Amino acid sequence: MKISTILFALAAMIFLTGCASLTGFQDGRTLGEQKVELGISLNVSQSPDFIDGEDDDDGGLDDILVFPNFELTGKYGVTEKFDLGLRLNTNLNFSINGKYQLFGDQTSPAALAIGTEVGTFGIFYSLWNIQFPLYFSIHPEENFSWYLSPRYIFQFAGGNLGSSSNYLGGNTGLLFGSKHKIGIDLGYYRFNGGNFLFEDEFDANVFTIGVGGKFVFGGKEGDEEPEPVKKTRKRRK
User: Which of 29, 30, 49, 173 has an alpha carbon 20 to 30 Å from 82's alpha carbon atom?
Assistant: First the structure.
């Protein structure tokens, strides 16, 4: 098999498994200063076959692919209101992101934050995406929360490798736990544009579902949760 054929197959595989990372698991709260969060998730996505799919009557693609991926994330609380993070998944996507909390704090029943993210596939082709998410969440109890994260993604290729593309949609899900959390995430996006292998343009629906966990460590001195006070019984004289 020729090297060029192998490289083409690898590039096609990358594109088929989704260029931009579409996972969620993010509520409207930031971590807090000097705290570190490590996360892992298993996600399954459903997407049209951008390579071999045939156009339907509406200008979309009718062949569907289903594929899994693992994603690792890390975040650091630069200030009480601002986090910096990164993520890497088995679809060969790497990105750096920031998150700033506009409303609420780490204990408020509702929280709102904005963010931005820059990701790349720089192994075989210079393919980039810029994401603009909004994070909103409700926390009726300290160990339970619901979040909604609408997001716009602009994707483009460096050089003359193809036209730009757009994703518009969002994620929603549930998180359980007060400090360390586990959750389920659902995402839906409408893809519009071309790809970096061919000049064809099309519309497509992309779905994702995942389960994951987030684990928080560190923090400023004095931020630790107080230990419960042990009650002692008084001895009768």
Answer: 173
pLDDT tens for the 237 residues of the chain, in order: 555 554 544 555 555 555 678 999 999 999 999 999 999 999 998 876 655 545 555 544 556 778 899 999 999 999 999 999 999 998 888 999 999 999 999 999 999 999 999 998 755 557 788 999 999 999 999 899 999 999 999 988 765 455 688 999 999 999 999 999 999 999 999 988 765 555 567 788 899 999 999 999 998 766 655 444 455 555 555
pTM score of the predicted model: 0.81
